[in-house]
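Journal club prep — side note

Before the paper discussion, L.F. wants everyone to see what a predicted structure for a comparable chain looks like in token form. Sequence:
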Amino acid sequence: MNSKRLLSLDVLRGLTVAGMILVNNGFGESFEMLRHVEWNGMTPCDLVFPFFLFIVGISTYLSLSKYQFRATPQVLAKIARRTVLLFAIGLAINWLDHAVEGDLLCFGHLRLWAVLQRIALSYGLASLFAVTVSHRWTLPTIITLLVVYAVILIVGNGYAQDASNILARVDLNLFGYDHLYHKSPVDPEGLLGTIPSVAHVLIGFYCGKKMSEASTLHDKLLVYFVAGAVLVIGGYLLSYGLPLNKRIWSPSYVLMTCGLAALLQGLLMYVIDLRGHQGWCLPFKVFGVNPLFLYVGSEVFAIVFGHIGLSAAVFSGIHAVVTHPQFASLCYALTFVAFCFCLGYVLFRRHIYIKL
């Protein structure tokens, strides 16, 4: 049963990574559903990153359970190594974006934050909680983090789409303008947003715990479906006071996206594990077993292809056949996903799994 459970988790992880690559690599004008909402609200594009954080939480439980959640030097070193390496790889991607333009010594204006840095801090802090605090405090900790963050948003003008936002002010004062995201007043992966992101990972951790404790496959499915329904309803109700907002990672956004991720995980367990329909899973298994390599590789190739003009050339060829600009953008993004799949498939066939 464990292998089946892990198969559905790999498929969900693969769906999410493929989705992240897809929405990050549209060329030109993308469909609205494949673009992030500018501020309040949510599109399918806004689901992929939070889904991945939810999966990080489940995987953290499964990984640390092998060590009985003991804070041994070996376990702490493993957590520290993964956290530092993830953060460093994120910084390296940001550096590469400047380096391909000849700005090798860009450290004075290198952006400090991005997706991998957010994952690194969220994983590291949630993992330290898992090995140092009794797990009966998981739910109270999640609630406390979200309540504290909600208060910060309310008191600090956290929904303002300008420089008065407390998230923007904290990042600006601590790190300086040159090291932040410049396409919006608020850095979407800034420091204070780590608070709800840790809660996000802990929700996945808690679901993984309850799922592992369930004795039958039906009970495991029930964990995800019940948790998903409760979280979606809670997120929807909370959104009336604290709207869904990916940019600030609002508490309602945490609950809603975790709920949808739990429901999808339950559905995949039903289809793959209970009903045994696995023939369609291969592409997502390929992405799911090497998620970090394929995501980082997609970012590197996107930067390099853009710099040498290959992205523009491929898109021009596609656009010559598919004249609708948004469909052409989608075709380009799907082509890029297929390219990444081919790289991953070579590793998959050779049973090479790159992990930190």
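L.F.'s comment for the group: The two ends are 26 Å apart (CA to CA). Keep this in mind when we get to the figures.
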